[in-house]
Amino acid sequence: MNFPSKLVETAVNHLSRLPGIGKKSALRLVLHMLKQEKIQVQQFGESFIRLINNISYCKACYSISDLELCEVCANPKRDKNIICVVEDIRVMMAIENTMQFKGVYHVLGGLISPMDGIGPSELRIEELVEKVKDNSIKEVIFALSTTMEGDTTNYYLFKRLKEFDISVSIIARGIAIGDELEYTDELTLASAISSRLPYENSLVN
């Protein structure tokens, strides 16, 4: 692709590194921004600079947060005895949008995937184990994608947690095999959470 300006080319190259955005889409975005008021484009860029410089992670659940504790963990009305284990912030947001879950979360930061070089030590699994060990946790819910990586992670977590006197459950399999939870509609996700089953049942089946 030939560009009339090195500045445009640089901007397109940076934007095209984002997921789902190719060079043509990036060029459309750049040309669109050039038509906007300069102050709007500056505010757009500054918002990302502030994001990178100031964003932090909740010290309790490892979600993205503006403060030490995210809104969920800081809410006294949430049931701190029930932990929902999720892959990342996108799944946490999807579950929150159902307005059905009243516990708290633990964000793993990914899934076990040997093909991608991601093992248990790359995830926040030890932090979850310590949390269960040190707190009055009654139930841990696995809400991971119904993929091979998700199933592998579920099983590993179950083995690590089975020594503790807690309930370990998994969201109901109303979600198609291979689906990622962030793309599941809210009604299906809400039903999967409310109809969760003991994890041992999934091993039998």
Radius of gyration computed on alpha carbons? 21 Å
**Number of separate strands:** 7
Structural class: alpha/beta
Unreliable segments of 5+ consecutive residues: none
The name of the CATH topology of the largest domain is Dna Topoisomerase Vi A Subunit, Chain: A, domain 2
Task: Count the DSSP helices.
Answer: 9
Distance between the termini: 53 Å
CATH class of the largest domain: Alpha Beta
Can you tell me the overall shape? elongated
Quickly give the CATH architecture of the largest domain: 3-Layer(aba) Sandwich
Sheet having the most strands: 5 strands, mixed
Query: How do the helices and strands follow one another from N- to C-terminus?
Result: HHHEEHEHEHEHEHEH
Q: What percentage of residues falls in helices of 4 or more residues?
A: 40-55%
Order of strands side by side in the largest beta sheet? Answer: 4-3-5-6-7
Strand residues, percent: 5-15%
Round the mean pLDDT to the nearest integer and report it: 90
| Structural domains: how many | 2
